[in-house]
Predict the 3D structure of the following.
Amino acid sequence: MPPSCAPVTDAEVAGFFDLWNAALATGDADTVAARYAPDAILLAATADEPRVGIEAIRDYFEEFLRRQPSGSIVSRTIVQSCNVAYDVGVYVFTLRGNRPGSTAEMPARYTFVYEFEDGRWQVAHHNASAMPTPVWRVAAGGGVRPQLR
């Protein structure tokens, strides 16, 4: 018997990012890791190795959350099939800068693959890769900000 497909709209899929970003805002790595499936894979733009599973993902966010990240979507494409949804595009993270009171922005390409499993939508795969050719300029407040070309 084929699996039952959980209904989801593109707006709901877009909202999964908002829930994930709200989890970042808590500053709690366990809250962020709870958005991921137990066997999820994270390929982060700021990490050298894949993070596989909740514990490895939580450990990554312990470090990343120290920069007080906040993400915003620049552009996205959403594709769906039965119990799987893809959210692919470009986002920009605002991060705490190296100097007190400064911020930095990091644009990146992203892919979130969500799977409906155990009665809820979870991140099964998350890939972020830094934009290959940012143009840097000094931002107000002394931070460094890349601009998309």
Residues 135-144 have pLDDT under 50 and may be disordered.
